[in-house]
Amino acid sequence: MAERSVPEREPGTGRTGDSGVRMRVLMEPRHGSRYDEILALALATEAAGFDAFFRSDHLMGVDPHDTTYRPTDCWTTLGGLARETSRVRLGALVGAATFREAGLLATIVASVDEMSGGRVELGLGTGWYEREHAAFGIPFPPIRDRFDRLEEQLAVVTGLWRAARDGTSFSHDGSHHRIADNHTPPHPAQDPYPPVIIGGTGPRRTPAIAARFADEFNGALGGDLAERYAVFDRACEAIGRDPATARRSAVLPVACGADPAEVARRGAVIGSDFMRDNAAIGSPEHVTDRIGRLAQAGADTVYLHIYDIGDLDHIALIGAEVLPHVAARPEGALQ
């Protein structure tokens, strides 16, 4: 039986008594953003009662020729939000393993976790946007190498965090990352360390890596979500892990409106045909129904994909008209 590296946790990252779905906001604006815009959206997310505020980890939009796109660094902005929010959990869905060296990433995330009082989660993937890497001078290896790098990076990051918890040193001699006898590993605020989120549509390596390291498996967007969760369950069982020790999440692009004109305006902002085909575009009742169908497929956490960063009324509407019908009470929220 292979040893799994994920820390021992209770099912659902230790929470008990939840009813409903954890509802989170995922920000990926069409034309990038400035920090003050990100902060305003995060504060609106917190005020509306969502469980968490996540952002994408990109330096370029889907149109590489969009000269209006404003890139911001994911973890720099999350560090700012850690000090300017009080309750929502914070993270990336998902970070690119190609962007940051493993030891540095472990230190960055641990620092933001401390700054937030233990509200950070680490989402990590292989990275996929080759043009973005070229535009910013970041190497983009072949897909097999990116998966190898991701798996090794997770081993290093979680290994450093465990060493900090246990008061030991850490070394790693791998093909992509080498750590030489680190006696000063970074200390996250959370015990044993921040939850790790891994996901995607791949049928083999993604679920296998998630089974080893993930506290949450994200089934991504489109296709047969229930089957992806079943594949993940089988990957857990193959290494002797109880699948119930991981959460299961999904992404849902959303354009919610109180009337048809509002729905049309918000729907027009969604970036691509693929996103629109898989989005919840309609009334609060329609969005509530779509979230319910994701829950029936096995999702206990849903990330609402938001594209218009300046439309704070959108967040308020969903908070008032959708959350009461679908959401579990966020950690730290008032009774």
TrEMBL record:
Protein name in the entry: LLM class F420-dependent oxidoreductase
Coiled-coil positions: none
Record-linked NCBIfam families: F420_Rv1855c (TIGR03560)
Gene3D superfamilies: Luciferase-like domain
Residue intervals of the Luciferase-like domain: 28-265
Domain of life: Bacteria
Entry keywords, A to Z: Flavoprotein, FMN, Monooxygenase, Oxidoreductase
Originating species: Pseudonocardia saturnea
Basic and acidic residues bias spans: 1-12
Region described as Disordered: spans on this chain: 1-21, 171-191
